[in-house]
Amino acid sequence: MKNIKQIKLIILDNDGVFTDGRITYDNNRVESKSFAAQDGLGIRLLSFTDIEIAVITGRESEILKQRCNDLGIKYLVQKVKNKEKAAQQILNLLGLNWENLAVMGDDWNDYPMLKKAALSAVPQNAFEDLKAKVDYVAKRKGGEGAVREFIELILKEQDKYEETLQKLLNHFANS
Q1: Does residue 25 fall inside a structural domain?
Q2: How would DSSP label each residue in 76-127?
Q3: What CATH number is associated with residue 93?
Q4: Confidence of residue 1 (pLDDT cuts 50, 70, 90)
Q5: Residue 121 included in any domain
Q6: Could you tell me the residue range of the domain that residue 44 belongs to?
Q7: What angle separates helix 62-71 from helix 37-46, to the nearest 10 degrees?
Q8: Quick one: which of 11, 58, 71, 147 is 20 to 30 A from 46 by CA?
């Protein structure tokens, strides 16, 4: 696997990565989505590190905005056609470059970001052609813990996992 010690930013797609990819509407056209609590805890782990997280998505969703707010995700970019450009803007804002970036996407609209990132990943349920073009294929599906798996992989490769986990456990014990 590539050297991922210098990862300082993780960018996620939403539908198919943070969720299972399903977009559900009720009879009043009210949208609903499901997010894995395990992924949320993985994102909380990052709050005890120097790694930032962002979500870039082609759609717009108030539900996603609320989820990002709940998890303390500061960088959410919605209704994006050019995800590579949006990623570059976040990198610029943080004073980082592509060597500092890990990306998890699930489809071809994510590929421009995936191919430039230092570490690229897809959930298990991504299409085979895309799986062949990334560095890491998660064992878990999108919306079922793939994000957590990716975060833990990075923290373990950076030798930060045990220390970060202890900080999280101490946080729970002192709450």
Answers
A1: yes
A2: EE-S-S-HHHHHHHHHHHHT--GGGEEEE--SGGGHHHHHHSSEEEE-TTS-
A3: 3.40.50.1000
A4: low
A5: yes
A6: 12-158
A7: 50
A8: 58
